[in-house]
Design a protein that fits this description.
Blueprint: H1 2-23, E1 45-46, E2 52-53, H2 62-70, H3 80-94, H4 104-107, H5 109-118, H6 128-132
Antiparallel strand pairs: 1-2
Keywords: Kinase, Transferase
Protein name: Histidine kinase
Organism: Sphingomonas lenta
């Protein structure tokens, strides 16, 4: 029984040593993210060996890209109108008659369209077979393919 403790202790020492080797005893300095004013490298130029050096785009974070999509006038600030512009576009798509008001039918356009598609006989009501076509189609959950277990006995 004592050998289990000895093997466990050796494993702890080995993992600690491996961790020390991987880290090298030093913690690397944190990476500095580029600022929003970072520029793209200049166009490709030839080096002494004749091989062109390709320009590299500066990486942007998701938030910088998202900010850029909203800041339409590129002044570094998002106004209320700029912020609401995407919602106004979505609202305009729903407002089919362009009167500036959403009727219930305009607001529920997806549901209204689904009903109209399912009502094949155009009776204004769905029978059981027509209603069955409106069910949400769910994808079955994927289960990983596991190899069959083998008995060790």
């Amino acid at each position: 029984m004592w050998w289990r403790y000895a093997v466990g202790g050796a494993a702890v020492l080995a993992m600690g040593g491996a961790g020390w080797l991987l880290v090298g005893g030093e913690v690397p300095p944190p990476a500095v993210l580029p600022t929003a004013s970072a520029q793209v490298a200049p166009p490709a130029q030839e080096t002494e060996g004749g091989a062109p050096t390709l320009p590299e785009a500066t990486p942007k974070t998701r938030e910088e890209k998202r900010f850029g999509r909203y800041d339409k006038d590129r002044d570094g600030a998002i106004t209320r109108d700029e912020y609401l512009l995407s919602r106004r576009k979505a609202y305009a798509k729903l407002d089919r008659d362009g009167d500036g008001r959403l009727s219930f039918d305009e607001w529920s356009v997806k549901t209204t369209t689904k009903f109209a598609t399912a009502d094949r006989d155009k009776s204004g009501a769905m029978n059981a077979a027509e209603f069955a076509t409106t069910a949400v189609k769910r994808r079955p959950a994927r289960r990983p393919a596991c190899p069959p277990q083998q008995d060790d006995g």
